[in-house]
Amino acid sequence: MLDRVQKLFVFLVALTSGIRPVRWRMAPAVALIAALWASAPLRGAAQAAPAWLDTFESRLEILALTQTLNAEILSSTSATRTLEKWCGDHRMAADPTIVARRIAGVDKAPTAEQLQRLQVASASEVKYRRVELRCGRHVLSEADNWYVPGRLTAEMNRLLETTDTAFGYVVRPLQPYRRTFAVTLLWSPLPAGWEQQARPKARSVQRARPLALPAEIFEHRAMLYTGDHQPFSEVDERYQGQLLAFSRSR
Fold first, then answer.
1. Which residues neighbour 213 within 8 Å (Cβ) at sequence distance 6 or greater?
2. Of 27, 41, 98, 115, which has the fewest Cβ atoms less than 10 A away?
């Protein structure tokens, strides 16, 4: 196991040394490599671990996981489907279907810049909703969504107004794609410059404390377009620490 952790350490040093700490993108090929490292089972793993421990190894694994998920969302046409796959792959719920719980009492008028990006003349053409995207009992992301109902079908608008169906599921017939224009890392499990610092002294599993996960990990702002390249939605998505709240093997 030590040999694998050492190799992962070297890989992440190379991966992060050229990445800006606030805004960055990863190529799908890099994401695939990171995913393979993160998902490979540890030799001798058998005992379920309900929480992350505050060790260098755990923080290194979290860094690989969060950067991989970030890149997968960036390269995907649907964040909802990416979260559904994540939930299913990590067995976070018996049914990994993503459900959107609407948060009432919140309203954000679109700015002039948002109206321009949506290619509409007036805020009256735009609707707003805030949701929590849930998988089972886990909140995976919170999202603000400004969308143009006139570019959706009547059935799509009905589903958005009256059900908990996630936006990504509802608009799938439009063959949408995403263009992310801002990515912000809200938390890092390792401090800046960690790759140039001496590795901390290892703690035994028995002595290690549970690692407190943050409320939010990273944020994406993106435009959604129809298959005919017409903008119909702008989203501000904040991905939650509960993405890491899955049972693990030691």
1. 52, 241, 242, 244, 245
2. 41
pLDDT tens digits for range 66-120? 999 999 999 999 999 999 999 999 999 999 999 999 998 999 999 999 999 999 9
Token output for 124: 């009256």
- Which three-class secondary structure state does DSSP give residue 171? coil
217 φ/ψ angles, rounded to the nearest 5 degrees: -110, -50
Domains and CATH numbers, the chain: 2-249 (3.40.1410.10)
Which residues fall within 8 angstroms of residue 60, CB to CB, at 6 or more apart?
5, 8, 9, 12, 189, 190
